[in-house]
Design goal:
The chain is mostly beta strands. The protein has helices spanning 5-13, 25-28, 63-70, 112-116, and strands spanning 18-20, 34-44, 72-75, 82-84, 88-99, 104-110, 119-120, 127-128, 133-142, 148-150, 155-163.
């Protein structure tokens, strides 16, 4: 069951749920979610594969190493806003580093206003496991007919927090722990 704003605030005040930088209570905590902001960089992937193939069974470097080898970074601070064309996939990160305690898990979902314009913020990976700490990666896709302007600090996603029935024997320790 999703946490309400009252429960979210209780977790933040107790310093079990941490957002760095801290979230703005008035503007970013809704009745049952926390708005997350777009961070300072985007990994822009090529429009065409140009013969590149990603085979997870053979690529021991990992998907992010592969994507970094074929994509280019756009820094929203120095390069300015990025206008995302239709039919484009790119990787972004939240501005906030999120630290979940072992008794909470979360789902990252898109903002309905951006979704109506065609922006999807995660392809199929909404789950944030109990004990996770790091910036959340956004697999963003513009499936709409219009270019969408992306700016650092814009509300880009929402985090829906949930109680874990019993805390896991060990919090998340996977490959994405501490991602920046």
């Amino acid at each position: 069951m999703a946490l309400s704003n009252v429960e979210i605030w209780a977790e933040i005040r107790a310093e079990r749920l941490v957002f760095d930088p801290p979230v703005d209570a008035e503007n970013h905590i809704g009745s049952s979610s926390v708005d997350l902001l777009l961070g300072e960089r985007l990994l822009v992937l090529p429009v065409s594969a140009n013969g590149q193939v990603f085979d997870p069974a053979l690529n021991h470097r990992g998907v992010m190493d592969f994507l970094e080898s074929v994509g280019t970074y756009h820094h929203l601070n120095g390069d300015g806003p990025y206008t995302m064309p239709p039919n484009r996939l790119l990787i972004g990160w939240t501005l906030e580093t999120v630290t979940l305690p072992d008794h909470l898990a979360a789902r990252i979902e898109g903002k309905s206003s951006l979704a109506r314009a065609g922006l999807s913020v995660h392809v199929t990976a909404p789950t944030v496991l109990a004990g996770f700490e790091g910036r959340l990666v956004l697999e963003m896709n513009n499936i709409g007919p219009y270019p969408i302007v992306l700016r650092r600090g814009m509300p880009i996603a929402q985090l829906i927090l949930e109680h874990v029935g019993l805390p896991p024997s060990e919090g998340y320790q996977g490959q994405y722990q501490g991602q920046r």
